[in-house]
Amino acid sequence: MELRDIEIFLTLAEELHFGRTADRLHVSQARVSQAVATQERRLGGALFDRSNRRQVRLTALGRQLAGDLRPAYADLLAGLERARQAARGVTATLRVGLLPFNVSELHGYWREFRSRHPQWDLRILRAPFVDPFASLRAGDLDVLVVWLPVEYPGLTVGPVLLTDSRLLAVCAEDPLALRSRVTAEALADRRHATAPAMPDYWEDRYLPFQTPRGRPIERSRTITNSDDLIHLVGTGEIVHVFPSHVTHHWSPAHIRWLPVDDMPPLAYALVWRAEEETGPVRALADTVRDLGPLSFDLG
Known about the structure:
By secondary structure, the protein is of the alpha/beta class. 37% of the residues lie in helices and 22% in strands. A hairpin with a 7-residue loop joins strand 1 (48-49) and strand 2. Helix 1 crosses helix 4 and helix 2 (18-25) crosses helix 3 (29-43).
């Protein structure tokens, strides 16, 4: 079985839809059908039940083959990637997950690290919006950049990369948009959103559960990605307090950004698993310490 045919089979086993599989792999549907038919002839049995084209299902043989091939295919791809890195003189990969957007001001850290350590591959990734610490604990990320405090056992908190002032994002039609700035008391009069699986202490640091005068700050929506978040702000369904660096990434004309005078800035730091403090992890921490933290203040 050709490597491309394995990729087509496993993708179709996941999507269970010929059109989506073709789109995902940038091939024609005919190519997908041909690859599957070829393997079915070689194996002597059907891999997919195609009696209903809209509801493709794996057969028992297909489920068995998918279960056997997935780990082997993943190992093969990982081996090829290690070989490519070795050919370039790369001896390790450092995966850094960002909760802040990878705005241009942060790129100085990445350039300096790569300049100092060309033997290591640095990959800057978006951290999952929902429970980013799970990816760190599972080993999918080596370092996480998140706001403080972080109070998980087994995690080491490293140097701060940036401190960031707070801006309230509101729809341009909201009466608050006529103001030049607000205080935290204004947050009690509007609906807000939250993400699932956030520790209370960590969520409270980002958006307090009550104002300084004790008025509750209502969370009316649970969202799972940043695109939905900014969309809900733009429709006027919610308001949201952001770190100010997001304005370097988003600048929609229908949203107004208001400094929140009495909310303390967020500090974002490197965090990693204590048991996985590798040479690349220490080197990134040293680079950040040497360059010092950035400060965003658009208030």
